[in-house]
Amino acid sequence: xxxxxxxxxxxxxxxxxxxxxxxxxxxxxxxxxxxxxxxxxxxxxxxxxxxxxxxxxxxxxxxxxxxxxxxxxxxxxxxxxxxxxxxxxxxxxxxxxxxxxxxxxxxxxxxxxxxxxxxxxxxxxxxxxxxxxxxxxxxxxxxxxxxxxxxxxxxxxxxxxxxxxxxxxxxxxxxxxxxxxxxxxxxxxxxxxxxxxxxxxxxxxxxxxxxxxxxxxxxxxxxxxxxxxxxxxxxxxxxxxxxxxxxxxxxxxxxxxxxxxxxxxxxxxxxxxxxxxxxxxxxxxxxxxxxxxxxxxxxxxxxxxxxxxxxxxxxxxxxxxxxxxxxxxxxxxxxxxxxxxxxxxxxxxxxxxxxxxxxxxxxxxxxxxxxxxxxxxxxxxxxxxxxxxxxxxxxxxxxxxxxxxxxxxxxxxxxxxxxxxxxxxxxxxxxxxxxxxxxxxxxxxxxxxxxxxxxxxxxxxxxxxxxxxxxxxxxxxxxxxxxxxxxxxxxxxxxxxxxxxxxxxxxxxxxxxxxxxxxxxxxxxxxxxxxxxxxxxxxxxxxxxxxxxxxxxxxxxxxxxxxxxxxxxxxxxxxxxxxxxxxxxxxxxxxx
Length: 592
Prior knowledge:
Oligomer: single chain
Shape: globular
Order of helices and strands: HHHHHHHHHHHHHHHHHHHHHH
Distance between the termini: 35 Å
Strand content: under 5%
């Protein structure tokens, strides 16, 4: 790491009184663009695949589609801890700045994809992984930079703004993707180029290393076992939701089972190794701090529930509700992003406010109450009919966003304030790992639940519905044999599955105009799938509500005063942690 470019100015003078606001604005920009790019591709996939001339719903191409979405999340989950540790060792600002630069280079390469079909998809997947590497450098060190810059009494507010911006970026990416893809698919990647270049130059000129780096050895064995274990495990989950043989999912695939058990075994080896070396990558002793352990457990479960909510809402809106209300399938990705804005609004309202109040009254009250509100909103969504009234739907989304905002900001502040200053980089990385892993896990968990529900009733319903509208029995049976995951992705991509299923066979040309219009209109497929889909939604939102309640229980266990308790515990649990007097001095540092 000695060859890293010197992207930050020397620490020649102490930062001025306004430095903390510079750090907040720059790191917030960094996590916003990183999280937006994690989701911006989801809505843009139809335009991207049309641009490179690839049918994403063909049986052999589902893997391209999944890796386009999950590759970014997988890299973010696997590498963020190691990059946070490198920030502790070599300078958080230095690693952060390098992340902006890598992110910009990858964005340019993505927009210049020179290939088509499968080769074009592989180019995009490869550079998305590189882009995720740069984004992980940003997210791994941003919370640590803010924790260094702000006094304890303002830390919750600062981390709240940063964290809620990151979460809001996931949903703003859906809206931005829909708008930009309507112009040109390459614009989806171009938009991050000027932002990342501006951020790189700005951070180089303004950010300072306010904490001295602690040089040490790189835990190579720990890095390798963690990256391999987490990567193999998440890859197994990715292939587990794809069909295998005659099964709707691939959980019986020997390769998937090998990946799941092999990845879990490597992670077990990693945990054993980390307890036996002097300078571990993943400082397991931090889990002796109650606020740190409880906060990360709550964050993991909440991330799983939030990820499931995001994907299920997109499918619900794009595949059923919007077509039933007259929207063309091609327009549903953009409108789904617009109709989900109350969720983002809730984040933006509750995040900074709860972060500010938690600085005065503690994190436990706001985090736990927020998760109870989230669980209540899931139960409300579960009770809605498939063809709901939008006013009630929007109110429940707003309530869910408010609850997640109440939880996320104080929880992040509690986690980061509970560790010694020299371990804030690795703590930030560990926190991000749990959050990113939760999002990746949510896809495997909730898609599997939904696919299993659809597999029991959708094929017969689809075959019978097609035959009732004049489609020959053999053609109808063939169309109904499409894996349910492909039907889900058809709605996810804003495609009319019926046009996709029957168009290539020429069956539509043999029907009357009235039959053809009925099959490819706005109501046939949504009405056909609404029953099986609602059954799947009941399972999904019921599981999500249960996860939110378990998260609330974990949050309540963090202790009465997370910050004070955490600092005291960190002094005991981590070598080189500040003494009780040093922690008290930091807490009394005047607000500037």
